[in-house]
Design goal:
Length: about 375
């Protein structure tokens, strides 16, 4: 842990009593900052989990948290997840995340995000901010007026979703190779939950790969947003099913692209798929669900490995000289295929669930500096 590790309070946020250093999710975070600016209404927590491999990079989430404790817990969990994701993608980056307490539909202003930019700047590059739930590329642009440590700008790497989808698509093939012995999507049936930014892009890639052009009837989809469902059906001929029926489809691959915690005690017994591989964050309700999937012979592609394309994309915005190169980012994302193969092999050889194998590889990596040196821009 660095010497600067501390709970830093700029203006004391009125907090409910809770333990921090002994909190379940604290997990040796290096640095947690609390910032408050009554003028703009900004109340934010920046959590830096681990910077052994490089500066902590992670998005900023704006959410109407039910309590400050919930906001702190979210920041801690999300930042830890970024450490694992960066290490598995072999990036010279650490893990961090920020949360803004507020309603993204009502409480946003340019001034609030500029203030957020000042907070990030005051950490002198230990933390690099990007977008997350409730925060758009426009908001990041406001932050970038006050800090040089903001990435995912529309005029640079832009929306990461197509790159994330590309990584998930390659990951699907790695899982198919391992479990089904081939990568031919035309012989495989899919159930895709959530056809938002990433899910719709995955359909496009399936289409381009020849599956949907020939037989869209092999893909079942659902979404709570009817207009997205209609778009997917109109464009790709997929079969819509009610959201609560997506787990029951007679398919080979279940592709979660909406919510977290959807792999749980209630859903696992319903799955007929032999592969679970999709972009959604925190798919397992609890770690033990990885073991249950394994017992049922369902191959799980750990979420933070298969969905790292977005992070790899913003890394290229930071690192590419003289400027961001989309093709370089896409080439880099291809590595997700090999990383997943490594995870699957370790899981097989050591008879352990794939989520545990991924955690072990990541933990080994983030205890030491990256092999290929640090950021070009650092
Ligand atoms: P999105 O909001 O564009 O898409 C999510 C879709 O899920 C929406 O269309 C929403 O209507 C739908 N949905 C919500 N609840 C649902 C339910 N109960 N049943 C069916 N559909 C439901 O988000 P996205 O950017 O496509 O991201 C999807 C997931 O992937 C999220 O968990 C996100 O955290 C994760 N992720 C995204 C990226 C990225 O680059 N966008 C990167 C890494 C991880």
């Amino acid at each position: 842990m660095s010497q600067s590790s501390a709970l830093r309070v700029y203006e004391q946020v009125e907090a409910e009593p809770m333990s921090l250093f002994s909190a379940k999710d604290f997990d040796n975070h290096e640095h947690i900052s609390f910032f408050c600016d009554p003028k703009t209404g900004l109340k934010t927590i920046i959590a830096i989990h681990n910077t052994k491999r490089g500066p902590a990079l992670g998005g900023c989430r704006m959410w109407s948290y039910a309590s400050e404790e919930e906001a702190i817990t979210d920041a801690l969990r999300l930042s830890k997840g970024m450490t694992y994701k960066a290490a598995m993608a072999d990036l010279p980056l650490g893990g961090g995340k920020s949360v803004i307490i507020g309603d993204s539909n009502k409480d946003k202003s340019a001034a609030l995000f500029e203030k957020m930019g000042e907070c990030v700047q005051s950490l002198n590059g230990q933390y690099i901010i990007a977008e997350d739930v409730g925060v758009t590329t426009d908001d990041v642009a406001h932050m970038a007026k006050k800090t040089k440590y903001a990435v995912g700008l529309a005029k640079k790497s832009g929306d990461p979703s197509p790159v994330t989808a590309y990584g998930v698509y390659k990951g699907l093939k790695a899982a198919m190779r391992t479990r089904l012995g081939h990568e031919n999507v035309r012989d495989v049936k899919f159930a895709l939950q959530g056809v938002g930014h990433v899910g719709m892009e995955i359909l496009k890639l399936l289409f381009e790969d020849g599956l949907l052009a020939r037989n869209g009837q092999q893909v079942y989809i659902c979404d709570i947003n009817e207009s997205y469902v209609k778009k997917a059906v109109d464009n790709y001929g997929v079969i819509p099913v009610p959201t609560d029926k997506i787990y029951d489809q007679n398919v080979d691959v279940f592709v979660p692209c909406a919510l977290g915690a959807i792999i749980n005690d209630r859903t696992i017994p319903r799955l007929k798929a032999s592969i679970v591989a999709g972009c959604a964050n925190n798919q397992l309700a609890e770690n033990r669900h990885g073991s249950i999937l394994r017992e049922r012979n369902i191959l799980y592609a750990p979420d933070y490995v298969i969905n790292a394309g977005g992070l790899i994309n913003v890394y290229h915005e930071l690192n590419d000289q003289p400027h961001y190169n989309r093709q370089k980012a896409l080439d880099h994302v291809l590595g997700i295929y090999d990383t997943l193969q490594e995870v699957f092999e370790m899981s097989q050889k050591q008879s352990m669930p794939t989520n545990q194998a991924a955690d072990m590889i990541a933990e080994k990596r983030f205890k030491q500096p990256p092999s290929g040196g640090g950021l070009a821009a650092a």
